[in-house]
């Protein structure tokens, strides 16, 4: 998933910088994309740590991975909302 998000970032960041938004708007657009990348990296790190700890299935390991994935999803929703609000209004 990180590679796909990096590809989106490679397209979205230049679009943000070339947009008609003011400096604050551009910072919010770029920041929302970087937030997705940061949260995805943290999610990957957590998954690797959980897998390293034990390969057997455990409800707490599943819960930790699910919550980290939900954080990625929430950061993507945030980016969509920021981009939608700043580019439409």
Labels describing this entry:
88% helix, mainly alpha, Helix Hairpins, 0% strand
Q: What does it look like?
A:
With 89 residues, the protein is an all-alpha fold. It has one domain: Helix Hairpins (Orthogonal Bundle). Helix content is 88%, strand content 0%. The protein is built from three helices and no strands. Helix 1 packs antiparallel against helix 2 and helix 2 packs antiparallel against helix 3. The longest helix is centred in the middle third of the chain and has 31 residues. It is elongated. The protein starts with a helix and ends with a helix. The model has no long low-confidence stretch (mean pLDDT 97).
Walk me through the topology.
Blueprint: H1 2-18, H2 23-53, H3 59-88
Helix pairs in contact: 1-2, 2-3
Assigned CATH architecture: Orthogonal Bundle
User: How helical, in percent, are the residues?
Assistant: over 70%
Shape field? elongated
**In the CATH scheme, what's the topology name?**
Helix Hairpins
The topology string of helices and strands comes to: HHH
* Amount of beta strand: under 5%
Q: What is the gyration radius calculated from CA atoms?
A: 16 Å
How many distinct helices? 3
Low-confidence stretches: none
* End-to-end C-alpha gap: 30 Å
**Biggest sheet descriptor:** none
Query: Which CATH C-level class is it?
Result: Mainly Alpha
Number of distinct beta strands = 0
Give the domain tally: 1
Kindly name the structural category. mainly alpha
Mean pLDDT, rounded to whole units? 97
């Amino acid at each position: 998933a990180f590679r796909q998000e990096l590809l989106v970032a490679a397209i979205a960041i230049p679009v943000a910088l070339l947009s008609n938004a003011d400096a604050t708007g551009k910072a919010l657009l770029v920041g929302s994309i970087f937030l997705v990348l940061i949260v995805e990296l943290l999610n990957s790190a957590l998954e690797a740590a959980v897998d390293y700890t034990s390969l057997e299935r455990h409800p707490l390991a599943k819960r930790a991975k699910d919550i980290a994935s939900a954080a990625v999803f929430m950061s993507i929703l945030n980016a969509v909302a920021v981009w939608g609000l700043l580019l439409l209004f």
